[in-house]
Amino acid sequence: MSSYYMPIPLAENDDEGMNHETKVPSGWSYRFPFIHVFTKKNHILWLNMWLLFNTIFSVVILFVALSLMRRAKELPYRPVPVYSPVREDGAEHYFDTQYQPSKIFQSPPSDQVDKAWHDWLQEHDHMFKFPKHKAKQVGLPETIELYNDPGYGAYGLGVYHQMHCLNRIRKSFYPERYYPGESQHEVMHHTNHCFDVLRQTVLCHGDISVVYWWNQNYTFVDQLGNRRYTEEYLRLSPEQRATGSFVKWDSKVQCRDMDAINAWAKANQVDDDKYGGQLVD
Ligand SMILES: *[C@@H]1O[C@H](CO)[C@@H](O)[C@H](O)[C@H]1NC(C)=O
Predict the structure, then answer these.
(1) Where are its TM segments located (predicted)?
(2) Ligand 1 nearest-atom number relative to CA 216
């Protein structure tokens, strides 16, 4: 009981008709439980307390906001990506992998090499169809109409155009094999634009995977599975090791999942037979 701890009022100071508790110094009324809440005198006190609460609350909100703003600044900048129907349809996936030198794609022209390129392009290098009214909504440029698919326009994905261009450049190195009837000028006309396509693609994607320099003759793996230096490596000076090394690009890298993109493209593919068949070049 709070009254146990109140000063005992002197009888002569005791106002008539007032009980002892209203005489208590203001701060004392706020002990729990709040029994005296609605007495007249306490109105001011409650107003003060409400203002105090508001002040503290505002200060706390201010600090929370400031710390959130600082945290937001530390987060990496995430640009809003440009529109792609592949992303909109949830077919943009990433996975961690490693570049792996491929024997077939490092070989000089042969029927086998041609087949590897041709099979991939024939399977994947198609146009996709996209509703014309939606293209306008999402800001895609106007394209030729698929006249046998009313209401649809013809579009393609950059990756397929770039693969086409890479193959085109490859073939232009061997014009007598791939373009026997064409002049040098005709062959290079298309190829030159492909250099620029790939130049800008490489720079745009700014691959930051890490390459390094080594020579396979410098190390071997022993029977216990330990990586060991060869005698040759130990014999060479640091300068000799450097000049005998080659750039290695079997880097760890995060890639977009081409299988998912290919599946999306297949699901939205234009039926080439309606338009005179696919042109793989
Ligand atoms: C590794 O050593 C062999 C034998 O000396 C040599 O023929 C070969 O060219 C070397 N390989 C490389 C990548 O330097």
Answers:
(1) 44-68
(2) 13
